# Entry
Amino acid sequence: MGLWSFLLDIPLVRGIGWGVLHSLWVGTALAAGLYVVLALTRRRSPKVRYFLCCMGLAGAVALPAAMGVCAALNWRVEAPLLADAGFILEPAVPRIAIAWVVGASLALTQLVGGWAYIQHRMRRDAWPSNAVSRTELLVLSSRLGLAPRVRILESTYIETPLVVGALRPAVVLPTLGVLELSARELDAILGHELAHIRRHDYLANLVQSVVEAVLFYHPAVWWLSRLIRQEREHCCDDLAVRACGDTLLYLRSLTVLESLRYVSPAPVAAAAGTPLVDRIRRLAERRGRRPS
# Structure
């Protein structure tokens, strides 16, 4: 018995290999279906589109995983076409499983290393900020239905605001932004970050990043993940506009942030999400469609 035949008899190897193979067509089919659904729901709220994208990504993980379990348990599908395809692909299953283990391990190691590095830099290069008063923080938190337990930090290491931490969340503001934004503009930007905390987006993004690492080889997953981040930012933009009560003020705040990205000293870390230009364009178009 050869090495590959021996590995093929191991349930875990068989389950991983077939799970990866099934993920290719399942993920592609889900992405294609979601593309049509999103085209039909273009006018719907970002919250609806975000939910649809999350369901698509969850299906791209759960369905192939279930199929991999069935393969590990030797539960065969009797459909002739699938049986023929399985007979052809089966010799490659151990090699696919090993390649996935190596690739996913590297991707997860990179993810953990990046997370640890950001945590280190935030401990080293971030400090409590006095840019936002306690009263302003209480008002914004109340408007967003959020408990006022958020820390406000400041750092020269970042170029756009971001949220760190799930249990003890903190909003980290770029020092250059604090200097250039007016008090009202800073409140508007802070509303966006508080919206992320209200929605538990930090934890959701961690889970999403793990999925990206596990399915590192799949272009459809990259596309789905990009859409999720895009709609997540749109959701928080809408919440921030409602919190500050002035779309034009919020647009001006985003414009100032975007202009500062080109004068920030290196090295800097950008917050993951939709490019600011796209977000500004979306809000401006939506504001222009409103009846006067």
About this structure: Confidence is low (pLDDT under 50) at residues 264-273. The chain is about 70% helix and 5% strand.
